[in-house]
Amino acid sequence: MLLTIRELTKTFPGTVALENVQFDLKAGEVHALLGENGAGKSTLIKCLTGVHARDKGEIRLDGAPISPDSTLAAQALGIGTVYQEVNLLPNLTVAENLTFGRQPTRWGMVSGRRMRAEAQEMLAGYGLDHVNVGAELGSYPVAVQQIVAIARAVALSGKVLILDEPTASLDARETETLFEVVRNLRARGLGIIFISHFLDQVFDVTDRLTVLRNGRHIVTAETAVMNRVDLIHHMLGHDLAEVEGRRQSREPGAERLHFSGFGRRGKVEPFDLTIREGEVTGLAGLLGSGRTETADVLFGRTPADRGAARDASGPVDLKSPRAAIAQGFGYAPEDRKTDGIVAELSIRENIALALQARRGWSRPIPRHEQKALANMYIKRLDIRTSDAEKAVGDLSGGNQQKVVLARWLAMNPRFLILDEPTRGIDVGAHAEILRLIGELTDQGMSILMISSELDELIAASDRVIVVRDRRHVSELVGADIETGTIINAIAAHEAEGATA
Amino acid sequence: MNARVLPLYATIAIFLVAYLICYLQFPAMLSTRVIANLLTDNAYLGIVAVGMTVVIISGGIDLSVGSVIAFSGVFIAVLLRDTGLHPLIVFALLLSVTTAFGAAMGGLIHGLAMPPFIVTLAGMFLARGAAYMLTIDSVPITHPFYDMLQDAYYRMPGGGRLRLIGVLMLLTVGAGMILAHRTRFGTAVFALGGGSQTARLMGADVGRTTVLIYAFSGFMAGLSGIVFSIYTGSGYPLATVGTELIAIATVVIGGTILTGGSGYVFGTLIGVLTMGLIQTYIVFDGTLSSWWTKIVIGLLLLLFILLQKGLLILGQRQRRSTA
Ligand SMILES: Nc1ncnc2c1ncn2[C@@H]1O[C@H](COP(=O)(O)OP(=O)(O)OP(=O)(O)O)[C@@H](O)[C@H]1O
Ligand SMILES: [Mg+2]
Fold first, then answer.
1. pTM for this structure?
2. How many domains does chain A have?
3. B262–A91: do the CB atoms touch at under 8 Å?
4. Which residues, given as ranges, of chain A have pLDDT below 70?
């Protein structure tokens, strides 16, 4: 056994994050670590790599007990980690990030040339040839940063590689590249711990899996002998409530907003879009196809430079997010890590903040009202926390995302844009969020949902718009909303584009 | 192009334009005499600002340096007066004291997770108090070795006298540039400024780096104190009050961002020279009150803060558009 963990226990004030957990990792295997949001997966990783001191328990690497007291010490033992919440340092160059702490030096001075060459080498095989390793990491998109983080961890891991939700911001192709790398490392005898909420990926790449629930070890098994239903049962402790199939098709709602010739140079080609009351509009397309750009333009994050928006009462001003919020718009963006929340404030305060800003500061929301609201969302979204006063930064990654959603839902906008609302959220809460979206639209809210998961898009949407190469290429309604048609819509236009 | 370099270019451009204006009005200002004086008069400020640059890049602040300079002057003067020690030995003693003092502040900042502002504010009072404990008067320094240091200069073409302390300042800037931009330690300093939590998860030794950063600043403050004592020929506990703030101003004018994570030691040199230039201009003019220095510095600071804010917004836009 490469790595054995026995009776690992870790408590935070008010929370038992891990209780007598056991875990084994063999050399040459990919081992999935699974569980709901807040189950204790990231905490296990942090205890293993010296970020948190454990209360109790034993960790052995190659049979010898280890107790790293920092990431640095863990690295020295041959354990490389991609943590869930970090994307390296945006103010350093790509090369500095990759070689940090081990930059090649000569007489005490870092050799920039050799450092860049080394960095280039580390990135080989990840399809990042266009990246200039001398440029600041922050100037690249999140997906590139994530791959750089992975490349760094891979280079640092002599024995164990830990990936905590590495694929959350990657598209299918990038994920496949990562899996290639993972399989190569497995062949070289590394032990790899893989955390993900994408069960398809778990079945695709892992050899064994371990499930945690509420900080306890539930089961360890060969991935090949596990079926999906049982796995979900282990994770949730109960079966997944039957997810309703496609939404009942209904009479189209009344027109609420109409965008004509709306667009922005270099972002998204002009499009026409009608938003109806009580409808979910799905935006399908590949990563980088213009989905997020559409949302940014609609919300005024990058204001439109052509076209017009109007509602029943006349033109609608959308030149900034502020203006959009004043118009009753809401937007839970994709990069929630940086945009959504104030980590130091409590769940209650975070939810109240947006609401208060909207109401104006002269009319404070009474505390008991804030509390009731927070508790309602904690219950609805199943936010795992000791109470509403816990700082959001102390929640697990997935639970932080739920707070962001709660914030926007609490504002009760007339038009809500959700960019990848279920990223990093476990299967149980996933279904609950879709149900909530259905409920809100029944009450009349209009929702625009962006998602890379076609199943979820199909289940939730009344109409689906396919985006490709920054253009809205087709709109599907009713029976046309099914996987084949959507994929065809993307592919057909690809072929068309190729011959044009 | 990298948006972070812009403040540096802006600093250099402003300095050149300001010099041009001065030159057009007073052609004598381009002489090597003026340039040599600019270096000599601001040597102590330049040295302490190099330390401050490193501290600010790491996301910290060191308010103690002004007091440490005063303490250094008094320490040297009193020791030379009361003991038979050679100045070089006194210098070595002093530098160990100020370095240890800085290291202790760094240790507290890391160990107790206290804001650098508070810890170094306490350090500021402590160092000033310690200076008063040694003496409350201005103590003149008379030592043949000091006379030698004060008289050592290199005559530049045109008659300017490049003094030892001016050269020392330039060497310090050079050393600071290498330390900040070309060593692993320097990268760790930038990493801390980018986010100490993240830096820790990447395997940076945050504690050690923090201690070293403030130790470095303490060392530079001590060195600056030595230079100041050579420059003034005395030690006085009330000297250099507020120098820490001037140092911070030069660092910001030099293009270093006050929130940390980005900056240039070379820019700080230009910031120091810009300040010196304003003072020289006022001296040349003869009719302007010296308060104008402060007003111009205030305006420059404001300009740079606005510039940085603008760049920040620009950077975010760019990032969003590439994302
Ligand atoms: N620094 C902390 N302070 C207090 N509580 C914490 C802290 N870190 C984690 N917790 C708590 O420990 C529990 C386990 O969190 P952990 O981050 O390990 O979950 P996770 O399984 O990684 O979930 P996710 O899938 O959402 O990432 C949660 O209840 C969380 O609130
Ligand atoms: Mg986690």
1. 0.82
2. 2
3. yes
4. 86, 241-250, 335-340, 491-500
Q: Virtual CA dihedral for A199, A203, A209, A211, nearest 10 degrees?
A: 20
pLDDT score for A437: 86
| pLDDT for res B86 | 95
| Residues 6 or more apart in contact with residue A365 via CB below 8 angstroms | A352, A355, A356, A359
Say if residues B260 and B57 touch (Cβ distance below 8 Å).
yes
Is A384 touching ligand 1 by the criterion CB < 6 Å? yes
A92/B193 CB distance under 8 A: no
φ and ψ at residue A263, rounded to 5 degrees? 175, 180
B6 vs B209, residue with greater confidence: B209
Query: Looking at residues B257-279, what average pLDDT do you find?
Result: 91
Q: How far does the CA of residue B178 sit from the closest CA of chain A (Å)?
A: 8
**Ligand 1, atom 22, residue with closest C-alpha:** A42
Q: Does the model's ipTM exceed the 0.90 cut?
A: no
pLDDT digits 0-9 by tens, B185-230: 999 999 999 988 889 888 889 999 999 999 999 999 999 999 999 9
- The answer to whether residue A100 sits within a structural domain is yes
A228-237, A238-247, B90-99, B119-128, range with the lowest pLDDT: A238-247
Residue at B122: amino acid letter: A
Angstroms from A41 CA to nearest CA on chain B: 17
A189 and A259 in a single domain? The answer is no
Residue A26 lies in a domain: yes
Instruction: For residue A280, list its beta bridge partners.
Output: A447
d(CA A46, CA A79): 12
CATH number at residue B42: 1.10.3470
Residues A299 and A408 in one domain: yes
Query: Which residues partner with A217 through β-bridges?
Result: A212
Determine the residue of chain A that is closest to B205 in CA distance. Answer: A72
A338 touches chain B (CB under 8 A): no
Q: Measured between CA atoms, how close is B88 to chain A, in angstroms?
A: 27
Q: How confident is the model at residue B182 (pLDDT cuts 50, 70, 90)?
A: very high
- Asked if A338 and A383 count as a contact pair (C-beta separation under 8 A), the reply is no
Its domain, for residue A478, covers: 255-499
Question: Is the Cα torsion angle A59, A64, A65, A69 positive or negative in sign?
Answer: negative
Q: Would you say the CB of residue A428 lies under 6 angstroms from ligand 1?
A: no
